[in-house]
């Protein structure tokens, strides 16, 4: 359960309506799609503030709509205390149905608006095609909308934000901490961070590598111009462990070139787990004592997003939930963990 700002406790029942699990026709007709979306966000975030930010509304408005939904149904969906929030049994059951309804509505809207028959091109910015974090999302998008033209653009996160702002990019994939206010974002994956080392390296023999063990290694840092968020993430992990990394004197054009430097014995490199399968013959080992997690978010221009953009965001959210890519109660990665 997650922390929650002060909110009055609710009774277990709202009125004397029978709780058969199926609302009457009048009640069902009063349910609004936005109420379902708000409830889903609240159920996944387990925090009113984060759910409201995700839906781009104020917290009080989201709370009011969820309360109206509960009154319409005649059951309590969310148990609130002054410190915590959790779904009731009825809320857990209703969540499954609400997700299906929203997915069907989004799918129908896409069909009606021509997403599958005459779709626009979708320009997606990726830090590096070697990072696998977003690959399942794009693969599912292409399978679900086979006529949608998806163009991948290899570009750093700062440039992604600039391109999103001026309309040269539709979607970005990266860490959202530096995104300007006009760029919306949603966390979809917390990627365990580890270290890539050459086969036969002393650290390759360890099942997990203490962060402190990197103090004696030459570390290839992410390119500051292309991935300042990832570079700062790695640097902060090292600082938390009590040392400043001995940075490799040089840089790599892309992930493949970086792996070649590691394999050649020039350095070691911190990298998310999503690169492990692509980094052979280098060896990936998780960091210890608790593995830090790098946050990947979908970025898009908040004002009037295209249907294809919303489809990608929905797929990222769907896969994140199904594959367990993130803890829905956490909005930020603890660098000290």
UniProtKB/TrEMBL annotation:
<keyword id="KW-0805">Transcription regulation</keyword>
<dbReference type="Pfam" id="PF00126">
    <property type="entry name" value="HTH_1"/>
</dbReference>
<dbReference type="InterPro" id="IPR036388">
    <property type="entry name" value="WH-like_DNA-bd_sf"/>
</dbReference>
<dbReference type="GO" id="GO:0003677">
    <property type="term" value="F:DNA binding"/>
</dbReference>
<keyword id="KW-0804">Transcription</keyword>
<dbReference type="GO" id="GO:0032993">
    <property type="term" value="C:protein-DNA complex"/>
</dbReference>
<comment type="similarity">
    <text>Belongs to the LysR transcriptional regulatory family.</text>
</comment>
<dbReference type="InterPro" id="IPR005119">
    <property type="entry name" value="LysR_subst-bd"/>
</dbReference>
<feature type="domain" description="HTH lysR-type">
    <location>
        <begin position="31"/>
        <end position="88"/>
    </location>
</feature>
<dbReference type="GO" id="GO:0003700">
    <property type="term" value="F:DNA-binding transcription factor activity"/>
</dbReference>
<dbReference type="Pfam" id="PF03466">
    <property type="entry name" value="LysR_substrate"/>
</dbReference>
<dbReference type="InterPro" id="IPR036390">
    <property type="entry name" value="WH_DNA-bd_sf"/>
</dbReference>
<keyword id="KW-0238">DNA-binding</keyword>
<dbReference type="InterPro" id="IPR000847">
    <property type="entry name" value="LysR_HTH_N"/>
</dbReference>
<protein>
    <submittedName>
        <fullName>DNA-binding transcriptional LysR family regulator</fullName>
    </submittedName>
</protein>
């Amino acid at each position: 359960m997650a922390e929650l700002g002060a909110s009055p406790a609710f009774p277990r029942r709202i009125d004397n309506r029978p709780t058969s699990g199926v609302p009457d026709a009048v009640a069902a007709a009063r349910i609004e799609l936005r109420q379902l979306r708000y409830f889903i966000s609240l159920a996944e975030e387990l925090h009113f503030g984060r759910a409201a930010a995700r839906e781009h509304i104020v917290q009080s408005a989201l709370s009011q709509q969820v309360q109206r939904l509960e009154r319409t149904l005649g059951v309590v969906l969310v148990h609130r205390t002054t410190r915590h929030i959790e779904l009731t049994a009825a809320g857990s059951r209703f969540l499954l149905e609400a997700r299906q309804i929203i997915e069907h509505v989004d799918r129908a809207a896409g069909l009606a608006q021509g997403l599958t028959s005459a779709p626009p091109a979708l320009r997606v910015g990726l830090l590096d095609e070697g990072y696998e974090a977003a690959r399942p999302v794009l693969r599912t998008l292409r399978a679900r909308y086979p006529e949608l033209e998806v163009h991948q653009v290899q570009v750093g996160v700062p440039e992604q934000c600039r391109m999103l702002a001026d309309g040269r990019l539709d979607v970005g994939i990266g860490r959202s901490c530096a995104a300007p206010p006009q760029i919306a974002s949603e966390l979809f994956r917390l990627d365990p961070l580890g270290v890539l080392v050459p086969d036969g390296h002393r650290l390759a023999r360890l099942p997990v590598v203490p962060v402190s063990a990197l103090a004696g290694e030459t570390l290839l840092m992410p390119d500051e111009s292309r991935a300042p968020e990832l570079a700062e993430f790695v640097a902060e992990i090292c600082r938390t462990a009590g040392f400043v990394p001995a940075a490799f004197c040089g840089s790599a054009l892309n992930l493949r070139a970086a792996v070649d430097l590691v394999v050649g014995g020039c350095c070691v490199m911190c990298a998310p787990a999503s690169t492990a399968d692509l980094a052979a013959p280098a060896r990936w080992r998780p960091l210890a004592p608790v593995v830090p997690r790098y946050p990947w978010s979908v970025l898009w221009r908040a004002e009037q997003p295209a249907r294809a953009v919303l489809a990608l965001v929905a797929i990222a959210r769907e896969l994140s939930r199904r594959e367990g890519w993130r803890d829905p109660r956490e909005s930020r990665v603890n660098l000290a963990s």
